[in-house]
């Protein structure tokens, strides 16, 4: 579990600069780990995915992703914002590049974190940010609580983010995307034991690894059929064979999210 714990420590408040520094303290990546996109995948743009938001600090340094589900509402991970205050966070839309200055920057008026959230391995990794400024971008639909069938094993899901492109690598300046198959709950349980909370999490990734979300992608979307169905949450390292990425199972939290979206 040490790699998981290190990954989690490295995850929150990760900036491009912090990622480079973290690499030093996390040890040398294996020589065979070639740099890969998101890990595995391709570059894309916020024009293609207009609901894809950067969650940043007050200086607009990105540390997580988020999904615009209403003009002033962004779904992200609880672990992304649990140590933040509304005044310390910004949401940036319409900005494909981390070093860009374009798009729309909003302050955050309110951070709602699932009241039961303690740690990613205990589930409840969901938060909703209320923006002070409306985002002029197309929102993403999200699953209803009834749509539990979307997580059928083998279903293709899409992940997005600016996170590190290898396990101990650095963030991607350009937004990246990849597709990964949903993993069965039994398969995910075999990988993660009691850290996999079936009601609150869903796994996605190839058995052989190679494609995954990674540090800095947290809070961003797992889309199934173009609908927000998961939130990037955690994993043992990144893109490792036998260790799929773990995402918040949004159907479980859909009604709660709707309450916040309508509040
Ligand atoms: N916890 C990470 C973050 O805060 C996301 C890790 C996802 N890991 C994975 N192997 N899919 O950015």
TrEMBL record:
Its main location: secreted. GO terms for biological process: protein maturation; proteolysis. The keyword Nucleus does not apply. InterPro entries: Peptidase_S1, Peptidase_S1_PA, Peptidase_S1_PA_chymotrypsin, Peptidase_S1A, Trypsin_dom, TRYPSIN_HIS, TRYPSIN_SER. One of its GO terms (cellular component) is extracellular region. Residues 38-262 form the Peptidase S1 domain. Residues 1-33 form the signal peptide. Coiled coil: none annotated. One of its GO terms (molecular function) is serine-type endopeptidase activity. PROSITE patterns: TRYPSIN_DOM (PS50240), TRYPSIN_HIS (PS00134), TRYPSIN_SER (PS00135). It is found in: Secreted. Keywords: Disulfide bond, Hydrolase, Protease, Secreted, Serine protease, Signal. SUPFAM superfamilies: Trypsin-like serine proteases. Belongs to the peptidase S1 family. This is Serine protease.
